[in-house]
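Protein: tRNA synthetases class I catalytic domain-containing protein
Species: Coptis chinensis
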Amino acid sequence: MYVCGIIVYDLSHIGHARVYVSFDVLFRYLKHLEYEVCYVHNVTDVNDKIIVRANELGEDPLSLSRRYFDEFRCDMSYLHCISPSAEPRVSDHMPQIIDMIKQILDNNGCAYRVDGEVYFSIDKFPEYGRLSGRKLEDNRVGERVTVDSRKQNPADFALWKVIDLYHPLAMRLFMMGTHYRSPINYSNAQLESASNRVFLHISGTIISFNSVRCIVKTYNSYIFSPKLRQLEVGTY
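Structure follows.
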């Protein structure tokens, strides 16, 4: 069970509490039914919102994200939420992210490079929108996926984005597209072991069409497993 995690650029609020208490209950219930459940929620600690916030406070972006993540964990403990099985951070999984993107680029042509950035080509994925029940033509241009004349298709989404080379963080990290907070943080072995199981992905309603759809396309282009198409989606 994968629940879309937080972007750690500020303190938690009541909306976060609602989300994680709700799925803590689901986690407990599935375990009560004796299902073997791996409960994961990611931590997005490399993101443009974090950089903007760090600049405002005059703080190192990674230090800021660690501080707010610690605050988040305290809040969850006050709510008596069970700790997830794993909380992968983007900053801890850059090698895996890079390897996954390279394989998508090199192995099947589902992605392309533009000025040092990498975009996923939706035209290479015929089942676009299958999970959400929406068609590509139903999209409003610029809705969550930035309009960019460099893209082959306006709906193509970023796998890898470059930040200002003069920013201190640029010496250590690049950043992924801000809408793309997915279990891409998993290692290859974890992805393949998940391919023969039911994978429950839960994200906010506002991003369920674009973000989750992007995740499914990326997974399928990466490990080519038809069983992965059993992925189910919930929203909060």
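Remarks: The two ends are 14 Å apart (CA to CA).
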